[in-house]
Amino acid sequence: MPIKIPADLPARAALESENIFVMTEERAQQQDIRPLEIAIVNLMPTKIATETQLLRLLGNSPIQVNITLLRTAAHESKNTPQHHLERFYKTFAEISHRSFDGMIITGAPVEQMPFEEVDYWHELLEIMQYAQSRVYSTLYLCWAAQAALYHFYKVPKYILPAKVSGIFCHEVLRPQCRLFRGFDDEFLAPHSRHTEVRAEDVHKTPGLRVLAESGEAGLALAESSDQRQIFMTGHLEYDRDTLDAEYRRDMARGLHPFIPRHYYPADNPDAIPMMTWRAHAHLFFSNWLNYYVYQETPFSLTAIADQHEVHMD
Fold it and tell me: In sequence order, what E strands does 173-291 have?
């Protein structure tokens, strides 16, 4: 939350230069407050684990958040009980008349398939197009980031010679970006993918900017120039044991995976993994909620669509 100070306090300029969020008394008096409406489009097969991970991060904020969980109608889930889906999830058709302050679209284990061959691709296109006009800020994770970059900006994805799996160090390229308020110059984050989008393609695409990269894992974060689309290729939301579970699953399937890099102490899969990304994960999601959603979204949700129509005109 912001620090409320007099507009002429000498500390104001120094704090703002350090990317600290300060608010003048005049602006604070004009603020309207209401709960945020956030939709989570959960494409992961392990829906209960994924929703828990994301809700843990979204809940670490003084801002009240109302959550709507969404699933695709075109895909039959084999790993989540049907009663759970019916009780807690809605389909796009049930919410398409609404507007949301923010939306998160998760990754999915379909990255090696051409986008158009994914069984819910057309439904996802409809959701992403809807988000352009009815959602103030959309956060795309992993495969969803690749899908959105491909659909909106024609940025291709590439099959990797080996799966990128592990905890990687990333350099913050735009420290003035509000998503990085409170971040160190470098941060750790998990990656788990067979494909990539390349930073050089994003750099040369109008309307996009790269925010963070890893020397080992490549592109980590990018955003649209209007800051209403954020693309994260990794998994800051992962729990301590998520990569471990994926590694053991692939071992059981006879896939002979590489040990996730920089994850187990001394690269020993029998050791308990160190969780080295938790603090930045909480900070990133708090920053997104506060600076990209709460401080920017209209007080009236209907105004989101109205703003889009004015912009299109």
Answer: 186-196, 208-214, 218-224, 229-232
- Bridge partner residues of 204 (DSSP): none
- Residue 140 and residue 147 in contact, taking contact as beta carbons nearer than 8 Å: yes
SS3 content of the chain, % helix, strand, coil (to 5): 35, 25, 40
Task: Tell me the catalytic residues.
Answer: 142, 235, 237
How far is the C-alpha of 46 from the C-alpha of 43, rounded, in Å? Answer: 9
pTM: 0.88
Query: Which H or E element spans position 4?
Result: strand 3-5
Q: What is the pLDDT of residues 91-131, one digit of tens each?
A: 999 999 999 999 999 999 999 999 999 999 999 999 999 99
Structural domain boundaries in the chain: 1-31, 34-236+276-312
Number of neighbouring beta carbons within 10 Å of residue 134: 20
Residue 143's pLDDT is: 97
Fold of 34-236+276-312: Rossmann fold (3.40.50)
Place of tokens 């209007």: 226
Contacts of 33 (CB under 8 A, 6+ apart): none
Could you tell me which residues come within 8 angstroms of residue 149 by beta carbon, excluding any fewer than 6 positions away?
140, 155, 197, 202, 208, 222, 231
Compute the distance between CA of residue 10 and CA of residue 136 in angstroms, rounded to an integer. Answer: 34
- Whether the CA torsion 104, 298, 16, 20 is positive or negative: it is negative
